[in-house]
Design brief:
By secondary structure, the chain is of the alpha+beta class. It has one domain: RelE-like (YaeB-like fold), CATH 3.30.2310.20. About 40% of the residues lie in helices and about 30% in strands. It is built from three helices and five strands; from the N terminus they run βααββββα. It has a five-stranded mixed beta sheet. α1 runs antiparallel to α2. The radius of gyration is 13 Å and the shape is globular.
Length: about 100
């Protein structure tokens, strides 16, 4: 069964920060990051139960960037609560997720 994806405002802001970061390294890389994240988000609707639970959320790892998509199931939707850079400290990741 395909699930619908809802990206919360905080998760959209996480993606925007990633775009800005990669564009600061080289023009165009931010667009590639955005397109990759959109593709990863689309796959969440197809792969129900594939991802493990980490810190209370399902966690899908990006295949191209060191990022994780944290989401939860809410009936027939998947609610994306965070898209976080895995190079950050584990403490920062835990605190960020605890606030969402």
């Amino acid at each position: 069964m395909k699930k619908h994806i809802v990206v919360l405002a905080e998760a959209a802001s996480d993606i925007e920060r990633g775009i800005d970061f990669y564009n600061s390294i080289e023009d165009g890389v931010g667009r590639y990051f955005r397109d990759s994240m959109i593709a990863e988000l689309r796959h969440l609707g197809l792969y129900f139960g594939k991802h493990r639970i980490h810190l209370g959320f399902f966690r899908a790892l990006s295949s191209r960037f060191p990022y994780a998509i944290y989401y939860r199931d809410k009936g027939d939707i998947r609610q994306v609560v965070a898209v976080l850079d895995l190079r950050r400290s584990p403490k920062w990741i835990r605190e960020t997720l605890a606030g969402r």
